[in-house]
Amino acid sequence: MHPLHPSATPPHPDVLVVGGGIIGLVTAWRAAGRGLRVAVADPAPGGGAAYVAAGMLAAVTELHYGEETLLGLNLASARRYPRFAQELEEASGQRIGYRRCGTLAVALDADDRAHLRELHALQVRSGLDSQWLTGRECRRLEPMLAPGVRGGLRVDGDHQVDPRRLAGALLAACERAGVVFHRSWAERLTTAGGRASGAELADGTRLAAGQVVLAGGSRSGRLAGVPEAVLPPVRPVKGQVLRLRLPDPPPGGRPFLSRTVRAVVRGNPLYLVPRESGELVLGATSEELGWDTTVTAGGVYELLRDAHELIPGLTELPLTESRAGLRPGSPDNAPLLGPTELPGLHLATGHFRNGVLLTPVTGDVMAEVLATGTVPEEARPFSPTRFSPTARGAERTRAPEEQPV
Ligand code: GLY
User: Fold this and answer.
1) Which superkingdom does the taxonomy of this entry point to (predicted)?
2) Residue having the nearest C-alpha atom to atom 5 of ligand 1
């Protein structure tokens, strides 16, 4: 540094976050709150998968077999939402549409009902709060449901948030907290002395940083310069989503839907998320088609066909938007959080179907890791190293009597 111009070179950030979706932004905001100097690289921060997502906080109704460990993290994050929403709204001066409306998951035919019974059994075994209702009881709660509804699960603890507002509020909170934004893609991770040292951006900027967080959603596995063994095994899983406009409820009357409604219609998962703003989000397809984000006639047809069967009156509503996004899928459907085997490089990616739900806990975990070097207890099962070739090799060579049961 030139002695006569001590401020000519701005200090390097302590942390460079690659990716400004909700996961990158919450990491940046929470890390800045711990006194770290933070920069984010993203051409359009606040976009990404959250711009498409419906925003269900569905730890209980979106439970799947084999995801019991993930359930613990999902529930931990759901519990943090009320406080998180309050803190973020105060820090940003913006509302995030956190709505404690509960969820009703319903079945339309005998197969759907059998599927829902299985889900209910799993929920009960997992100690979760979920109540079985008859078709009549479901329609009493939501009169717009088709008369053919065979039964359902009432889950009063699965709420919703508006992901676009969440992203906007995180962006504002980051700016107020002094996070510096570089509106360009990170093209290459740089390393020095065997550790991550920053990134080269598409606009030619070279950014040095004490620690780097790769939070690029489905693109996280594509950053050049990341050693092969450390690249996260994240893939894009396409979801097509529709937005419709709800009618204003008549004075003193019932809204079109008063809670999130989910269903499996002839094996296809479907959800409808009614917002206080009058938006109804209808999703979603799940397609393994690489980087394709085309909205297809077939995708829209299937969503509307199944939704019409569930709620016949829905086809009267104005269709205002159709869009496709890419979920960052991981091999075990769970996120990769914390340090990698390359010193100085951390991951916050692979959140798959649960990015919006996991935003609060991800921010807390990543800030703790970045500020103290310690991985909090709740994040330890989600270490990126569980996918590293070294860890997998050790598992393969373990003697049978040493295998976990
Ligand atoms: N969590 C909803 C979805 O991934 O479609």
Assistant:
1) Bacteria
2) 284
